[in-house]
Write a structure and sequence with these properties.
With about 250 residues, this protein is α+β, with helices and mostly antiparallel strands. Helix 2 crosses helix 6. The protein has one domain. Strands 1-2-4-5-6-7-3 form a 7-stranded mixed β-sheet, sandwiched between helices. It has a two-stranded antiparallel sheet with strand order 8-9. It is globular and about 50 Å long.
């Protein structure tokens, strides 16, 4: 199914974008759990409207819970096999970044369940994330916080009617001298992996335009230093559309 315009008629008059975003987050989580994530990891949707700081899909690591029943070597062997089963493409861009200047970023990524460690996140952009400068800066700071503390993150922005790029906002915050390709307007989806070395590091990104009428991409979600799983946004989009009975589906 191609990408629809959720923010303008005729679809916006028949289905609320908030309902679809909720259904899509659930479909992404369900697909990751059923088909992509290795043992010891799980994804769960988290939706809360009216807050600037919220993870839409969180991938967590609870392998330590199985430490008493599974030997570390066996776990490592299984994870290696999972990593080899799917090889992510080379990053579209690679930039040197300075994370020391982000010490004042106030967004901290924690999960209330102390039994699990947050390792990756997927964000579905809403119009409120980009409707004013302070909201855009807060969202960029949130993603920058992910890059400091998590293995990977993906941002999906299918908000039409706004040429504001939160990806470009993030690069401005990180003081990255980005090229024209990284200034592309939405709709778009971007996967990130930050390889940090003390205060500095390297930021890898996989930016893919998401044009209305075209299929959605598959992007790598990094859940460990050398382990990425494929996130098929087209498949989860189809599933969400069917679950809420999209017109014509």
């Amino acid at each position: 199914m191609p990408l629809f315009d959720h923010f303008h008629p005729p679809l916006s008059e028949r289905r609320k974008w908030e309902g679809f975003h909720s259904a899509w987050a659930s479909a992404i989580s369900e697909t990751l759990n059923a088909e992509c994530l290795p043992d010891g990891y799980f994804a769960e949707p988290q939706v809360r409207w009216g807050s600037l700081v919220e993870v839409d899909v969180a991938a967590k690591d609870e392998r330590w819970l199985d430490a008493s029943v599974e030997q570390p070597l066996a776990r490592a062997t299984r994870e290696a096999a999972t990593a080899l089963a799917w090889s992510p493409p080379d990053p579209v861009t690679v930039y040197e970044i300075d994370l020391a200047r982000l010490d004042d970023v106030s967004v901290k990524i924690y999960q209330s369940d102390a039994a699990s460690e947050l390792v990756a996140a997927i964000e579905l952009v809403s119009p409120n994330n980009k409707d004013r400068p302070e909201h855009r800066r807060a969202f960029a700071g949130k993603i920058a916080g992910y890059l400091q503390s998590l293995h990977g993150a993906i941002v999906v922005d299918i908000v039409t009617g706004s040429a504001v790029s939160l990806h470009a906002e993030l690069f401005d915050l990180l003081a990255v001298d980005a090229g024209d390709a990284d200034r592309a307007p939405p709709p778009l989806a971007v996967a990130y992996r930050a390889l940090t070395r003390s205060a500095g590091g390297t930021l890898e990104s996989w930016l893919t335009p998401c044009r209305v009428g075209d299929p959605l991409p598959t992007l790598p979600l990094w859940i460990a230093f050398e382990t990425a799983v494929p996130v098929d946004f087209e498949r989860s989009y189809d599933k969400a559309a069917a679950n809420i009975r999209f017109p014509g589906v």
